Amino acid sequence: MKYTKRTNRKSGASLVEFAAALTLGLPLVIGILYVVLEASVYFAIRTNIDIAARNAARALAIEYGKDPTIAAAPGGPKVQAVLTKIRIPGFVVNNLQFNTPTFDVAIPPASVTVVCQYPSGGAYGLPRFPNPDPLKLGSNFKVISSATFATE
Predict the structure, then answer these.
(1) Widest CA span of the chain, in angstroms?
(2) Average model confidence (pLDDT) for the chain?
(3) Residue 55 phi, psi (nearest 5)
(4) Number of structural domains found in the chain
(5) Using a CB cutoff of 8 Å and minimum separation of 24, what contacts does 80-85 make?
(6) pLDDT of 85 above 70
(7) What angle do CA 18, 22, 25 make, to 5 degrees?
(8) Looking at the predicted structure, is the pLDDT value of residue 57 above 80?
(9) Domain that holds residue 18
């Protein structure tokens, strides 16, 4: 009988140790999973914003090479038509996400730099990032990318 009592005590101690490990370890594992998931969402956003900025800069560089006069009006209809073609669902859905420079018409630009931004507050119908926001980064957190291409 002494042997069975010792086994019961050992299994009871093991159960207590498992409960303690679970109590301390589970929140840590959940926290690590949250950080990994948020980082992967950030890199997905950043990659798509990079692609959009490169595509916009390349397309505008080609258009500026064809007609340098459109460079003087970054909000003009020709520039907006080029930017409207650049869409990545869930990441780039509005021309207001792009920032294009203004150039002097007399001096054609040698290169074009376009800045593309993912709005952190969920503007334009895009999902908020980060979401949820335990660190209260909110509108202070922005994902921005820029690209430069030489005019052709």
Answers:
(1) 101
(2) 84
(3) -65, -40
(4) 1
(5) 82/56, 83/56, 85/59
(6) yes
(7) 130
(8) yes
(9) 2-150
